[in-house]
Amino acid sequence: MRTSPAVDKAAGALAEAVPAALRRREVTDLLRARALGRPVHPAVVALPIGLYAASAALDLMPGSAKAARTMIGAGLAVAPAALATELAEYGTLDEGQRRTAFVQLAALAAANVCYLTSFRLRGHGFGVVARAVSALGLTALGAGGLLGVRTADPRPPKGVREPV
After folding, report:
1. CA geometry: angle at 86 spanning 19 and 88, to 5°?
2. Residue 78 CA: distances (Å) to CA of 55, 110, 111
3. Does the structure show a pLDDT above 50 at 98?
4. What share of the chain is helix, strand, coil (3-state, %, to 5)?
């Protein structure tokens, strides 16, 4: 298993900093969609990622600047829900899972800062710079996904046998 003392320390600090309200069973059950029987976070986090990716595709099409900005705005609007569902799950993770989640949270946060910056730049007519900042945001999302996979614990969960 890959370890990184710096990432583990930061991930542990975040676990301690998760607001007490998110640790309450009623809140975590709601945010984790326990009634559905599956974690809701993967579906919710796919929304801003998909909207940001759609904005990148629109940036490649002439005359689609307004539509790209709309996609970014929608991604920014649903990003807090993705963060809340991640933090609700975060307290339940073991150290290896928390490391992966921390890397992905950091990448999503960096991407959201890039996309917020891009959204504002687009509103002020800085289209070329805004598209470059969006590209940085998309890069952060991709890197977070890749690094998250690389930092994940390669061992199967308890009770799951590895294929022969």
Report:
1. 45
2. 15, 15, 13
3. yes
4. 75, 0, 25
